[in-house]
Design brief:
The complex is a heterodimer of chains A (about 500) and B (about 500).
Chain A (H helix, E strand, L loop, with lengths): L5 H9 L5 H14 L6 E3 L2 H16 L10 E5 L26 H8 L3 E6 L33 H8 L5 E6 L5 H7 L2 E4 L19 E6 L2 H11 L45 E5 L9 H16 L3 E5 L7 H16 L18 H12 L2 H14 L5 H22 L4 E5 L15 H6 L2 H9 L3 E8 L8 E7 L5 H14 L19
Parallel strand pairs in A: 2-3, 7-8, 7-9
Antiparallel strand pairs in A: 1-3, 4-6, 5-6, 5-10, 9-11, 10-11
Helix pairs in contact in A: 2-3, 5-6, 7-15, 9-11, 9-12, 9-14, 12-14
Chain B lengths: L2 E12 L38 H13 L3 E2 L2 E2 L1 E5 L9 E5 L5 E2 L2 E6 L10 E14 L3 E3 L8 E3 L6 E7 L6 H17 L12 E11 L9 E6 L2 H20 L7 E6 L4 E7 L9 E2 L6 E2 L2 H9 L5 H12 L3 H7 L3 H14 L4 H18 L11 H12 L5 H14 L6 H9 L7 H14 L1 H8 L3 H14 L6 H12 L1
Parallel strand pairs in B: 13-14
Antiparallel strand pairs in B: 1-11, 1-12, 2-6, 3-17, 4-5, 4-16, 6-8, 7-8, 8-11, 9-10, 12-13, 14-15
Helix pairs in contact in B: 1-4, 2-3, 5-6, 7-8, 7-9, 9-10, 10-11, 12-14, 12-15, 13-14, 14-15
Classes of the chains: A alpha/beta (about 500), B alpha+beta (about 500).
Chain lengths: ~500, ~500
């Protein structure tokens, strides 16, 4: 049953093939068996089964909704009552929240069953999940490889079929990149779609929650539960709720766009796909490029046309992001001071000493690095040169996207310049790690929605390491992006592949 | 050398919202520690601030009252520093773009007898007023060697009101602070309770040689929570700075605290120790947008302001500027005054003013009561005043009646009439009755009559006294005077 999509599981539950409790037990057993992946940081079977049992009761009364009884894992950046909420940090190793994050609450109210909390880079800072206080997560496809980050535990859990779906957060690529590196589907919605209340903040103006699942259709179903205005988050956008599944399976022009309606074999007739030249430059690995090219040909076969666009400030997105995100983080993480909750040094002299020791012990090296950078770029005399300048370029990056969207409906390219790298390969060189985020950062800076769709594997030694295709949409175009991804997944099976089943000799992009 | 004093004030006024500026927790004063701190105030992981529109509305009300610009878009910023009573490690405040910009407040500086300085009016320019949250409290006393943290106050809304450095004496600073205090209470945006810290001032003080254009180096005196402390602290600081400079020293820019027991200011931290607060716009809060509709609605709901009311009282009721100013020191007093006139008639304005500023004020003061809780209502006072005006009772008897109403906490509007009748206090206006009494007095005081006739004017006063005594004060003194003169001539 773990191979099934949410839609299939829904049908099975409704047909009473098995109960929500049985379903939860099955996944709990898989999580237990796959403990070596280190994808989960906290599992509480009793609590999970109590939720499943409550879901069964609802289903028995016929009072269930589309998500009732379906299991989900939550990234440990979302606070939860019952399960610990650590954000992958020693600082919060034993922390229990007295309230649920809005995301957790909404899905629980929809009847979803929480399987536990997934591992992540400390405070969501990282691209390999090696910055977790609870140890790195292994890529289920190749245990020598990283799963990506920071939502590495969530991505690995879905890829290894330890959970049919998981929540993640994306600040500079933290949903899309691990989804890409583990061959699952993940979407970061438009900034403001998903409430940040109860999401432990990394960089407030960039953080955005979203789902990781096997398919675009499953992501759409989950977004229906996740997204929506929340009065507790002032950056949440007040818009009418929408059905993110509404365009799935439709031809592109059926929804009223200009041009001839698509046909059954060319459902995407009329779709213009923008290809930013900056996303296909020298830094892009050949095997990734090959897989993307095959995917783009597939889209052409479905009726789409490819358009060259330009996003000239793409390279600047790295310094801009690594100024703004640390600046916000340096302030957001000030609350971890040992005074009220979380880690406090056992031995200290005066107050200042308590602060220093607590934070020196509680934070890992990458978090400290970013706090230092952030405090520096905000400090007197440097603010204008760094923070203010970065904000200006951020606005230009957003404008560049709007110019591109004048010529196309969606933008496509790689998510990551390479497939997953080996554990430990970049841990000594943070800048190399930062450079790997080049294709995802500008979307976050612009607040645009972006997703990763599995589209193949690397070549040679990387033949067990997945490649993700990035789809970037304009603001609030998630339903259309999911339609475009779904059309691809109807004619490909990359998203159905599971670790261990991929033939070792599979040619790139096969 | 002649020195000129330069003062600017920053006043923290606690806004009278029921809940905090960014959370739903109560702002009530005096609760058990940490019982009014919710997850947002505690800065638990994952919480976010949500702007309290009531606090914004109060800021708009203040801005309109001082003729300031209400920024259509203002920005909340984070002021970053570590302190145990600051849960987030930053204070949400407004930095580059405050909600209220500019504005003026006109003050009346009272006469100063010692220096012979006459009373004068001055207009104080304000720089800005911005919204921010208060911090919690550190309690050092109750825990041996440890510090307790009470976060009840954390997140309480404050409006920080900043003046230009335009005040030139402690007297001006105090007059400004009092006028501002009256205004914020008048507008209903702050309860004005200085003991509880609802209204507290920081004074920026410097001195410069008279005629010099540049400002001297300033010291900032923090947390002055009474008008007396404000005056004492400024005067001490001015003396300290002048003496320092005259002894060849230089003033250093620093933050100082006023010790009210020792009546001196003490250095708290110098500029070198000053924090780099690393201000930046708070990404959790969208810029505060205030539309014209909102501003106009608040404007339409503004009460008549004390300054305008003073002008009107002078014009409409022919009161002196002093009376008008005194009657508008609070909205309650002004309302009481106008309620008396509504019943007693505008022609009784001066008498009503005298009663309110005299008898009413001193009795309220004695019993520590607010005018809203006055045992003698405006309507009751109006009846009493009407009885003085129509000659039913004398002013002296009226005070007795007033005291009786006060003491018995009478609730009937015509209490004055009831008491006058019951006690037989009606003035003797029948001249026949009065003549008979005077004849008796003259007969009983033959010696005085004789003395008067011999040219002793003093004896006449004694006869009046006897006559008044015989009428138990109910006679009209003028009438007694006239009758006596007639009889003795």
């Amino acid at each position: 049953m773990h191979q099934k999509s949410l839609t299939e599981l829904r049908a099975a539950l409704d047909a009473k093939e098995y109960s929500a409790v049985e379903l939860a037990q099955h996944f709990l057993a898989r999580i237990d068996a796959a403990a070596g992946l280190n994808a989960f940081v906290h599992v509480d079977a009793q609590r999970t089964l109590a939720q499943a049992s409550a879901a069964d009761a609802l289903l028995a009364q016929g009072a269930g909704g589309p998500l009732t009884g379906l299991p989900i894992a939550h990234k440990d950046v979302f606070v939860t009552r019952g399960w610990r909420s650590t954000a992958g940090s020693k600082m919060l190793e034993h922390y229990e929240s007295p309230f649920d994050a809005t995301v957790v609450e909404r899905l629980a109210q929809a009847g979803m069953v929480c399987l536990g909390k997934t591992n992540m880079d400390e405070f969501a800072m990282g691209s390999s999940n090696e910055n977790s206080h609870f140890g790195p997560v292994k890529n289920p496809w190749d245990h020598a490889a990283v799963p990506g980050g920071s939502s590495g535990g969530s991505a690995a859990a879905v890829a290894a079929r330890l959970a049919p779906a998981a929540t993640g957060t994306d600040t500079g690529g933290s949903i899309r990149q691990p989804a890409s590196l583990t061959g699952v589907t993940g979407i970061k919605p438009t900034y403001g779609r998903v409430s940040r209340y109860g999401m432990i903040a990394f960089a407030s103006s960039l953080d955005q929650g979203g789902p990781l699942a096997q398919s675009a259709a499953d992501c759409a179903l989950l977004l229906n539960g996740l997204a929506g205005f929340d009065a507790r988050d002032s950056t949440s956008i007040e818009r009418a709720d929408e059905d993110y599944t509404r365009h799935l399976g439709q031809s592109w022009n059926a929804a009223g766009a200009a041009g001839a309606a698509g046909t059954a074999d060319k459902p995407l007739q009329g779709l213009r796909i923008g290809l930013p030249q900056e996303y296909f430059g020298p830094g892009l690995a050949d095997d990734v490029r090959a897989a993307i090219d095959v995917a783009l040909k597939q889209y052409q076969a479905l009726g789409a046309v490819l358009v060259d666009v330009t996003l000239p400030k793409t390279e600047l997105s790295i310094p801009v992001y690594y100024i703004i995100a640390p600046a916000e983080a340096s302030s957001n993480l000030s609350r971890f001071d040992g005074v009220r909750y979380g880690h406090r040094a056992a031995q200290y002299g005066d107050l200042l000493d308590m602060y220093k020791k607590t934070r020196a012990e509680g934070f890992g090296p990458e978090v400290k690095r970013r706090i230092l950078v952030g405090a520096y770029v905000l400090s007197h005399g440097y603010y204008d040169a760094y923070y203010l300048q970065a904000q200006k370029i951020r606005r230009i990056i957003a404008q560049d996207f709007q110019q591109a969207f004048a010529q196309c409906d969606v933008i496509m390219g790689p998510v990551s310049p390479t497939v997953a790298w080996n554990l430990g390969a970049k841990t000594d060189d943070p800048v190399q790690m930062y450079l790997a985020d080049i294709y995802t950062l500008s979307t976050s800076l612009a607040g645009l929605p972006g997703m990763s769709v599995p589209c193949g594997f690397g070549a040679g030694a990387n033949s067990q390491r997945p490649v993700g295709l990035q789809i970037i949409g304009n603001y609030f175009d998630e339903a259309r992006m999911l339609q475009v991804a779904h059309a691809f997944q109807r004619v490909t099976d990359w998203h159905r592949r599971e670790p261990g089943q991929q033939p070792a000799s599979a040619p790139a992009g096969a | 050398m002649q020195w000129e004093v330069v003062i600017g004030l920053e006043t923290h006024t606690q806004l009278s919202t029921a809940s905090k500026i960014f959370s739903g927790a109560s702002t009530r004063f005096g609760a058990e520690p940490n019982t009014q701190a919710c997850v947002v105030d505690l800065a638990l992981p994952g919480v976010l601030p949500v702007m309290n529109r009531g606090a914004v509305e109060r800021a708009i009300r203040f801005g309109l009252a001082i003729g300031a610009t209400i920024a259509p878009r203002s920005v909340f910023a984070r002021k970053n520093y570590f302190y145990p009573d600051l849960p987030k490690g930053y204070q949400i405040s407004q930095y580059e773009i405050p909600v209220v910009q500019g504005g003026t407040l006109t003050i009346q500086v009272p006469a100063h007898e010692k220096s012979g300085q006459a009373a004068y009016e001055k207009t104080i320019e304000l720089t800005r007023a911005h919204l921010e949250e208060d911090a919690g409290k550190s309690l050092h006393e109750d825990y041996a060697g440890m510090t307790g943290i009470d976060l009840n106050r954390a997140g309480t809304p404050l409006l920080e009101i900043v003046t230009e450095p335009v005040m030139r004496s402690a007297a001006e600073a105090v007059a400004y602070a009092k006028t501002l205090h009256t205004l914020v209470m008048w507008l209903g945006i702050c309860d004005g309770n200085m003991q509880e810290g609802s209204f507290r001032c920081d004074a920026n003080v410097s001195v410069r040689p008279l005629g010099q254009a540049e400002f001297g180096t300033r010291a900032e005196i923090k947390n002055l929570n009474s008008f007396r402390f404000l005056e004492e602290a400024i005067n001490y600081e001015v003396r300290r700075q002048i003496e320092l400079i005259e002894d060849g020293g230089t003033v250093v820019q620093e933050t100082r605290l006023y010790d009210s027991d020792r009546r001196e200011t003490r250095s708290m931290r110098s500029k070198e120790d000053a924090h780099d607060y690393r201000y930046f716009p708070d990404p959790d809060l969208a810029p505060l947008a205030i539309g014209v509709d909102w501003i106009e609605r608040v404007r339409s709901e503004l009460p008549e302001l004390p300054a305008a009311m003073q002008v009107r009282f002078v014009e409409q009721y022919a009161l002196s500027a002093y009376d008008a100013a005194t009657l508008t020191t609070s909205k309650g007093i002004a309302a009481y005054f106008e309620a008396v006139l509504a019943k007693a008639g505008a022609s009784q304005a001066k008498m009503a003013a005298n009663w309110i500023m005299g008898e009413v004020a001193s009795q309220l003061n004695r019993d520590s009561l607010d005018i809203d809780a006055s045992p003698v209502s405006a309507a009751q006072l109006a009846v009493l005043i009407a009885r003085i005006a129509d000659g039913t009772i004398s002013n002296k008897i009226a005070k007795e009646v007033f005291q009786a109403i006060w003491d018995e906490r009478a609730t009937d509007e015509a209490a004055a009439d009831r008491i006058i009748d019951a006690e037989g206090l009606r003035q003797i206006s029948d001249s026949g009755e009065l003549e008979a009494i005077i004849d008796t007095v003259l007969a009983a005081n033959a010696k005085s009559v004789e003395e008067y006739r011999a040219g002793k004017e003093k004896a006449f006063n004694a006869l009046i006294g006897q006559a008044m005594k015989a009428t138990r004060g109910k006679a009209n003194p003028q009438q007694v005077n006239d009758l006596l003169k007639k009889k003795l001539s």
